[in-house]
Design goal:
Largest sheet: 5 strands, antiparallel
Helix content: 10-25%
Distance between the termini: 31 Å
Oligomer: single chain
Strand content: 25-35%
Structural class: alpha+beta
Number of helices: 3
Order of helices and strands: EEEHHHEE
Radius of gyration: 14 Å
Strand order of the largest sheet: 1-2-3-4-5
Low-confidence stretches: 8-14
Shape: globular
Length: 103
């Protein structure tokens, strides 16, 4: 198992979401500059069919709205995933809390 390094504090404007680093990957909060690459990869009917809330076609404006929506409206967190050596965008992982607090 590879070790995960957590860097803090996160850059301003990223809601205190830590930057996670492994040997091969960097995970950080998505920012508006990521919108074009997110849209390019998400604008795929097969991807949209596997999600419950992703529109198709998926435009840069949709990616921007999604990124801006990660500012605390729904509890949760999203990470943009990049290959560390090439800095190539790999994808997004996220979770949102829609239930009640666990006792």
């Amino acid at each position: 198992m590879n070790a995960v390094q957590v860097r803090r504090p996160a850059p301003p404007g990223e809601l205190g979401i830590p930057v996670l680093e492994t040997e091969r990957l960097t995970l950080r909060a998505p920012v508006l500059d990521d919108a074009p690459v997110i849209a390019a990869l998400a604008n795929n009917r097969n991807v949209a069919e596997m999600t419950s809330s992703m529109p198709y076609p998926y435009r840069v404006e949709d990616a921007e709205a999604w990124i801006l929506g990660k500012t605390g409206q729904t509890p949760g967190v999203a990470f943009a995933i990049f290959e560390k050596n090439s800095e190539a965008f790999v994808g997004i992982c996220s979770y949102e809390w829609h239930g009640e607090t666990i006792p």
